[in-house]
Amino acid sequence: MHLIQVDSVQRWMEDLKLMTDCECMCILQSKPISIEKDEQNELILSSQYSTCDNLQLLLKRAWIISTELTRIAQKLEKNRWQRVHSMTVRLNCHVRSMINEYSAFTRSSSEETHQLEKLLVEKCSEFTAFTERCLQTEDEEILKSMKSCVNETLTTVAQYFGQLIELVLTQEAQTLLRQMELSGSLYVTESALSGLFSLAQEGAHLCRIIAKEGGVVALFKICRQDCFRCLYPQTLRTLASICCVEEGMHQLEKVDGILCLADILTDTSHSEATHAEAAAVIAQITSPHLTFTQHLSSFLENMEEIVTALVKLCQEASSGEVFLLASAALANITFFDTMACEILLQLNAVKILLAACSDKHIVDTPYSRDQVVTILANMSVLDQCASEIIQGNGVQLLMEMLFEKSSSGNPAEAAACERVQQKSAVTLARLSRDPEVAEAAVKLSCIPRLIKLCRSPTERNNSDSVLVACLAALRRLAVMSPDGLEDSDFQQLVKPRLVDSFLLCTNMEESFV
């Protein structure tokens, strides 16, 4: 990582270049003295972005312009002509600044880019002139007729802007990919990889552009060259980002990407970091949230060796992050195909996962426990799983997971805790068809805890999914051990239809407990 030390004065001087051409125009020519409190909504580039690379600067400026276009449309809808005009002038300045900045750092621009830049600048000038005329007109009828023309011009500006940004980003992706393709230099390839990863982090649209331009093909080409072994982790991390979109998945399938990932995972000469990033790609392409994984036919052909390698990675993980990536991939695979659960049983995965949970340095977050309990929940449909859980003291772990609580209050962590509670209850419900598991659960006081989760909304973070899972588990355990419930619990939580018990619990006040 290359760090550049810049003193505060130099940083301010660099920042000043970005701010003056927009701000002086707005302040000296178009900023009205108004009672409207919109000043805090005006957008400028903050000093914290002064050390960002040129592409990040372009994306930041593009985001500002996009936001300004949206706000102009909102003000136009309300006939706030004074604000529309001042914002249009500011938009004009931002567009010109963006074009100047891009021209300053780009190596070469195509004729098509120049043409679009010219059209956009002309249309912005026309837009500013239009709104100025509207500002000088007080006749409501004339303003009404002009409004449609202003709307049409705004739409055209937005269209040209969108086309220009799309073209510029496509050209940048092409440049980076060309560098990777033609360079045999480790340094140049690493630099291009870094730029490509940065682009991919900007969202699904950028990932689609990269995939369409052959990004997945180029990245797998690197992963098949031993001379770039030290770049494998970075390359795989970029692949994981791009494969969140359908275009990336299709490209992965075309270049036999699954086979390449399987080879990397099973090659013991690779570093743990490389194996972990390969696991991250597997986790991404098998995510149950994606709707376009059905075409991954080659995955089934390599599934056994991939699952075997991932289980080994879980067993030998040296950190919580490595375990999280490997277990997340395994969890997704258990959704992807039921055969995976049978393979996991043969590999003694239950024992390995339960052992890992006892090591607080490895399974150290609710996110890791979420992956483990997901695997256990999906495996619990198999009859042989119950004995494995009993032998590994898994019922005790499931009981502990019913107490999962967020320590930070972070919304993402709280959601992970809810999933852990829900899935541990689901696993208990499925496993309790085995009398031995049910007996162990009763001895560990699972029934009182399930009742508490049902009756106390704060215990389950007001989660309805946790409530349903706990009601199902409670009903299963009540069949095996009816003496464990008080009559009121039986009458309210077990005897009625599940939907009636659910409605009763969701309407309970905290003071009821």
TrEMBL record:
- Which is one Gene Ontology cellular component term of this protein? apical cortex
Superkingdom to which the source organism belongs = Eukaryota
Protein inscuteable homologue LGN-binding domain sequence ranges = 4-48
Give the Protein inscuteable homologue C-terminal domain ranges.
61-513
Read off the Gene3D superfamilies from this record.
Inscuteable LGN-binding domain, Leucine-rich Repeat Variant
Which InterPro entries has this protein been placed in? ARM-like, ARM-type_fold, Armadillo, Insc_C, INSC_LBD, INSC_LBD_sf, Inscuteable
One of the entry's Gene Ontology molecular-function terms is: cytoskeletal anchor activity
SMART domains documented for this protein: ARM
**GO BP, sorted A to Z:** apical protein localization; asymmetric cell division; establishment of mitotic spindle orientation; regulation of asymmetric cell division
Query: Any coiled-coil ranges, and where?
Result: none
Kindly provide the name given to this protein in its UniProt entry: INSC protein
